[in-house]
Amino acid sequence: xxxxxxxxxxxxxxxxxxxxxxxxxxxxxxxxxxxxxxxxxxxxxxxxxxxxxxxxxxxxxxxxxxxxxxxxxxxxxxxxxxxxxxxxxxxxxxxxxxxxxxxxxxxxxxxxxxxxxxxxxxxxxxxxxxxxxxxxxxxxxxxxxxxxxxxxxxxxxxxxxxxxxxxxxxxxxxxxxxxxxxxxxxxxxxxxxxxxxx
Length: 198
Description:
The chain is mostly helical. The chain contains eight helices and no strands. It has helices spanning 2-20, 22-29, 31-39, 41-46, 51-129, 160-168, 173-181, 192-197.
């Protein structure tokens, strides 16, 4: 029941974001609407004795104020969602890039190690051809590349971003509660049509 309700709310939110809310946003951010709204202060002062007009203009200004505040809060929430997604996408890309660089570096180290082995075999062959006893050469082990990072392997764990986020970003219970409902980049949003039907 709770899942169907959440899908229905997500579908309704998607419908409103796509077809309804852009119109009041366009109206409230239209330059002439802003100037007209500011200009309504003049009739409030000039016709202060006309109670009906003053109440009507005041009601309009109150509605505009609430609408602007609500839209600002909505955009702040959307911005929070995008910042979270951008941070997770950047971390994921950094992990993928690091894995790629590590693989290439491992190939280079393996190539160098193969060359060292071949050089040691050639050296032992030349020594044996000269009639002397060849001493086995000690080959250095390849280092673990993730251990070379100042934070070690912990930097490359899947939970590192969440731990760093919790440790360095100022935490607020309201923001944390909102972030729990925000989808991650890898999470597919439900289809609005399915949400409305459910």
